[in-house]
Amino acid sequence: MRPSPRASILLIAVFLTVVFAVAPMRAYLHQRAELSDLERQTELLQQQNTDLERRIADLNDPATLERLARECLGMVRPGEIAFVPIPKGHAPTPPDCG
């Protein structure tokens, strides 16, 4: 049984519609995935920005600056004497100044 000319034209039209819809659909799905990745990256960067702002505020605190100067740079106030305990048999471990 042969399909009628009308059914053949309809079948060809549906086929062409599907063929031409595949590329835009793939592009759309790819862009959606990329957008999702960018949103995740944005959230991560915003969190890092918040952490850095907190660190800036902490470094603007005079008490923190003094602590870091004493611990990391070995600085003392005029008239003070710095003592560095050295563990027996080891070199002193440097403080965490990060």
Q: How many β strands by DSSP?
A: 0
Helix and strand pattern:
HH
How would you describe the shape? Answer: rod-shaped
Helix content: 55-70%
Low-confidence stretches: none
Kindly, what is the distance between the CA atoms of the first and last residues, rounded to a whole number of angstroms?
A: 81 Å
Question: In words, what does this structure look like?
Answer:
- This protein is mainly α.
- The protein has a domain at 11-73.
- The chain is 68% helix and 0% strand.
- The chain contains two helices and no strands.
- The chain has helices spanning 5-59, 62-73.
- The longest helix is centred in the first third of the chain and has 55 residues, at 5-59.
- The N and C termini lie far apart (81 Å).
- The model has no long low-confidence stretch (mean pLDDT 88).
